[in-house]
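Lab notes, practical 5.
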Amino acid sequence: MLPLLLYFLDRLMTAVPRESLVLTGRAVAALLAVYGVIWLAIHWVTALAAPGDNVEQLIWIHSLELGYFKHPPMPTWIMAASAAVFGPSIGLTYVLGGVITLGSLAIFWKLLCDMRGQAYASVALLAALSITFYCGRLYYYNHNVVMMLWISLAAALTWHVSQKPSLAGWACLGLVSGLGMLSKYQYVLALGVIGLWWLRIGAWKNPVHVKGAALATVIGLLVLSPHLYWLSTHDWMPMHYAERTSLGLHLDTAARINMSWKFAVDWIFNRCMPAWIVLGVALWWGRRRAGKTGVQTAPAQVTPVAADRMLREFWLLWGLVPLLAMLVLCLFTGSYLHLQWGTAFMFLCVPAVMEWARSPQSWGSAGDMRAAWLTFGVLQALLLLQFWLASPMGLSGYKSSHQNHIPVNRIVEGLAPAAHQALGGPVDIIIGPQALAGRIAMELPERPRVYVERNLQYSPWIREDELPNARIIEVMVAPDPLPEGVTRAYGVWAWRPVKIAKGEH
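Output from the prediction step:
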């Protein structure tokens, strides 16, 4: 049976010319558009509730600040600008998240084209698109997604400025790095990689690199300076949040080892596994075809040995350093590692593995291209099926209990009429867990504001003097039986009217 299957696969994959499978600029645009439409459509249809991070941004745009209690402000600014044009909506967050993610991968493809040629870049893009953070979470819009854009640009600029040193290139890298830090503090890992690469190329010997690095530092700090001022005047709130939720947990030795192991396994053997399958099949089939025919069709672009070694080291740095840095952070400080922290860096592992696993000149051969495309197509079909089965519309035995499956429409249907009647009008403010309260707020026609954790510092869009006269409700997951004064909206979700006296918050 297996030999017969291999025979038909061989015939299928040799029927299409290699040249037609190599992605050009227009083909990449078409591929990303089709990929984006399919995955965003299934997310749109199946999700009963938007991701909490998406909702968070729609909450925060009620007041444009230089910083927020959890994170720097860049994603919120981008969302506010988009909402000013298209109107605030859950759908806008889906599209914006997808566009930024796919745009980042397009930059990644262009960089690889410049470095190794279009065939190599095509295989890498197909593998990167198979990473489950980029298909299964394509509708997410958060700080990780926005940071991914700046990281892809930083990687491209770092390479180009090292090949053609210029103050203009360094200035652009400084600007991008400032914007990266304004998106998420985790961008400091990218700065670490840039610094290591600066040392690797002996940049201190070149006056352009020395002056350029100084210029980039100044520009980056200037871009970041308004946020730094905000931090100094707001008790460094995001740092306290990070300490409370991750960096300051000080896990014991067993928990550190377990957390590091879990993070590495999730990164390498879960999220990235489909990418390794694409590369593995391409590698195996390319070698099989080469051994069968005695001919290996290599990309036209050939790199001198010294430059080839530098290129390989470049991708090993970008692909390995962020992962290793996060593991070291956990092992030596006891910090808790959130699995989504790998989102903005995982695609960089693909060329690192390609450079390590095989001669770069051989990636993108005829066998590779056909095998990569076939494997990519099969995997995408399987991932779509798996996602559908785990969705609220899937088979009962496969349905996930993810928070995105909260039936927000049903909750609002049960809550809105009674709340409007009890309050004597539309809801002005909602109190409760931010994700739950925000989801409900987006579905209510009056679009009330969310009073995050009853903390005015966390909710700069709410004034203390308006609270006594505001129509306020609190939403919650209520126990059974319901406490006095609490009304069930739907299932385990309930609400109650709240009155806040002057001076009470």
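Observations recorded by the TA: The first strand starts at residue 429 and ends at 432. The chain has a mean pLDDT of 91.
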